[in-house]
Every structure is written in structure tokens, then in C-alpha cells.
Specification:
318 residues, alpha/beta, Rossmann fold, N-(1-d-carboxylethyl)-l-norvaline Dehydrogenase, domain 2, 2 domains, 8-stranded mixed sheet, 48% helix, 10% strand, globular, binds nicotinamide-adenine-dinucleotide
Amino acid sequence: MIEQPFPAGVVGLGLMGTSIATCLLAAGHRVVGIDKDAARRRNLKRRVSALLRDMRREKLLSKEPASVLKHLSASDDFGALRGCGLVIESIFEDLGEKREVLRKVEDAVAPDALIGSNTSSLPVTELQRGARHPGRILGIHWGEPAHILRFLEVICGDETDPRNAEKVMRLASLWKKEPTLVRRDIRGFVTNRIMYAMLREAFYLVENGYATIEDVDRSVRNDMGYWITMAGPFRYMDLTGIPAYAAVMRGLLPDLCRSQETPKLMQEVVASGARGTSNAKGFYAYTPAEAKRWEKRFLDFSYEIRALALKYAERPKR
Ligand SMILES: NC(=O)c1ccc[n+]([C@@H]2O[C@H](COP(=O)([O-])OP(=O)(O)OC[C@H]3O[C@@H](n4cnc5c(N)ncnc54)[C@H](O)[C@@H]3O)[C@@H](O)[C@H]2O)c1
């Protein structure tokens, strides 16, 4: 059974909240966006409109963007969420703030409305603590750009009612996702655990002079970059010979970085004020125009890799 669209809310209209709202609108939901920042609320329609036009051009949106956009509104009042069957929280990564937002959402919506957090790393069980109806709170972890990627992780906290997780898994097909169910709560879920293990090792190699930032990026792009969209780690081992991996693991695993600290280079770059392409300051040097070009390239590539991944996707068994 495919769920029907109902009014949905998004709290936090930053980078991710904007693309999540776009995805929900494109899937037919009426969307209420909440943000405490007036500029974010003011710019919402303009930003979503641009993303919808791209989706239309890429044939991911069957309706005219303007007819979809009129179902979007923005407010700083959580009361505007009344009537929403689903609310997704996507404010910055802070446990206390997120709990506070979830409490305000619970005050506004019906007891059976679903509430998802787009946390990247906080345990969902921690977010459920103190909630009035914790069974309807779950992790709904999107990837950026959320309106293009097929990625979605649905995470059960200790108190999540599994029927609610199943409901979100069904909704995900309406959102054109290929979702993963994370059955037991674990910090970082699936992809962030794997990605951060990779990031730690990337910093280790650079900080210890084994390779430059450019060389690490080049190797990863040209090796994992060529197979990971199609295969995933386990299929890849099937395709390339399992015993060799066992042999390498014996020697290599004890040698990998196991540091528990945030890498020094990361701390320095953050302290310098770098936010990445959004302020044209990152691990690489950018002029503002170059930063914009990279952002556009990233979006264009996301559409193309989506099409390529779908072309090579395993057909579901009948
Ligand atoms: N950026 C990514 O690629 C990515 C990927 C997956 C998950 N996430 C997660 O998504 C969440 C949001 O990330 P982002 O990059 O979009 O952040 P962001 O900083 O771009 O946006 C956060 C927004 O939340 C608003 N906000 C903060 N506190 C609020 C409150 N109490 N009430 C209403 N609005 C509030 C801010 O004004 C801001 O507009 C984080 O939990 C992050 O870990 C991010």
C-alpha cells in the first residue's frame, strides 16, 4: 500500500530543510516550514522555486513548479504545524535544542502524527527521552541534496513503534527514495559510521604527510567513486574476490587510525571560519564565483549519478 500525501512540516529551513521541503512538495504534500531566522523564511520560496525548476528540467517533477510552490508556507510559529501528519526536524546538530524543538512540535500536532529527526549522529533514543508519545518519534535521515538522492535511512529508537517505521518506509517510495531501515538505534546509523571511518583515515593520511588533500580526493574519487554507487561494499567484495579482503584485513586493520579526537587539521580549518563552498572558504581555495560553480556542478552531477544508478539498479524480484 502506498501512503497518500498529507500536510507535512519541516522545522529548520537551512541547507537540508530546504531540499527536504522541496522533496515533500514534489511528492504532493502541502508543506509548512518553520524557522526562527526571518531571512531563511523570507528566502524559502525563492530557493525552493529554483530547486523545483531544476527537478522539472530533469523530469523528476511532473507538475508546473508554480502550481507546487503554492502549497508551501513559512512561519516562526510552531502552531502552524497543526494538522500536519508528519513533521521533520532539521535544525542544527544539538541534542538540547533538538529535544526542545520536538517538544514544541508535540505541543502542536495530533498524538498520532509522525515526527522524524534528520539528525546525522544523535541517538534517536536520546531524542525520545521526555517525549509525550515517543513511539511516533524516529530518525529520518536524508542526504543532501534531499530532493535528488534516493538515500533515506529510517531509524528506530528504543521506543519507536515499528509500525510507524514501516509507515515511513512506505512513504519513502512516494518520495522516490530507496530507503534503509535501521532496526536498532546506533549513533551515526549506517552511512555516517562508514563515512566518518573514511574521513578519520583521510585526515590521518594528510596530517602524517602520506598524501596531500588533493591526492586523497583523487584516489577516493577514482577508486571507490567508480563502484560504490552501483555495488556497495558487500556486493563489491563478491565481485572482486572475497578471500583477498580477508588476507588484507589481517595486516591492515591493526594499522588503521583509531584516534578518538577530532583531527587537528579539521579544528584549524573550522577555527579559520571556513564553512566550505557556502562562504568560499574550505580545504581548497575558491573565489566566490568558483564556489558557486562547484555547487552547481555538485547538483548537476547528483542528477546524472541518480540516473546512472537507476539504470544499473537491481530490478526488484517479482
Ligand atoms: N548538511 C548536510 O549535508 C546534512 C546531511 C544529513 C543530515 N544533516 C543534519 O541536518 C540537520 C540540519 O543541517 P543543515 O546543514 O541543514 O543546517 P543549517 O545550519 O543549514 O540549518 C539549520 C536551520 O535551523 C534553524 N534553526 C535552528 N534552531 C531552530 C529552532 N529552535 N527553531 C526553528 N529553527 C531553528 C536555523 O535558523 C537554520 O536555518 C542537522 O542535524 C545535520 O546534522 C545535514
